[in-house]
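Fold in tokens:
===
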Amino acid sequence: MKITFPHMGNTYIAVKVLLDGLGLDYYMPPVADRATFERGIENSPEFMCLPFKTIMGNFLDGLDHGADTILFGGGAGQCRLSYYGDLHKEILHSLGYEFNYINLQLNHLTYKEIMDKFGPFIKGISKATVVKAVTESAWTVFAVDGVYAKAAHVRPREVKHGSADGIMQHFEKRVRTENGFGNIRDAIFEAKRALEAIELDPQANPLKIGIIGEIFIASEPFCNLEIEKKLGNMGADVYNTMSVSMWIKHHFINAILPIHGKDHAVEAAQEYMHIDDVGGHGVNTIGNAELMCRNGLDGIVHIYPFTCMPEIIAQSAFHDIEKKYDIPIMTLIVDEMTAEAGYITRLEAFTDMLRMRHDRQKPQSYNVSRSSRAG
């Protein structure tokens, strides 16, 4: 058996830790590979969203490199009428591929579901080994998001421009080639120490910009054209609400705890949308916009893939939120035709406008916790 899996942001690091811990063979598609991306576009329905097409390209590349099992984590509910993952499978079968398909429902992920889906593939592996691999993988998700959060904090404050980017490039190169939890953990600690050693400008007063939207686009640098890095290098401290660790916290950890905590984003959204689900991450988008505005950010970027109906619905609440808090929200819609030059121009114009507003106002206290990146 040889497993392949699609990319979504930095999730590949935790997946590598999980599969290495279980001793399973796998093929990881290359990160941000244009040829793989274009194959996905060619073999997907025209009006499917960019995440669907990107994932399709990863599947094709993995199967072409000898994988016979696909590991996929999708959602259930109203997004694409719950048929998202099944459509991938049907298209691949129509192209002549034969494979096993492990489809984890991330909206309601439980330890039992993990064991049921992986059961046939981990026969002979002790329960202690499985628990250890899952635990190490979960730790990795949160630790890696912590590294990216630290980089986002450092970029607009560093004395030597580009220091954080250099460290993150080295970190990403290393974790793509390293295997095993111990080596990945060492790479994480090394990156954290390096980021903490960067000299910061004590007089820096960066903009505070939040990112909301659909989780794949918000967390996948290849598809969002590295929005966190671009905004950081434009002088903004970026708070991305749609991190992988946030999703695991709400949909896995909370699900297995005897007492479930409140979903503050869903709760905050009720003022504008009296429902807890419109599909995808639409309600979370509204709630996160409300929470960020309460915390006094300078502006918010709403980003999502073209044709994403839940995010289109979410936009209907933005006028009221902007009016209530006098905080601008800019929407970016991306697909395979998005031109980077125009994209950068919009980000530059938005940050210039926020800077002028920021400089006209007195310094204020920001209450946004860096943990907001993880929910």
The chain has a mean pLDDT of 89. The first strand starts at residue 3 and ends at 4. The chain has 17 helices and eight strands. The beta strands are 3-4, 26-27, 69-74, 100-105, 207-213, 236-240, 299-305, 329-334.
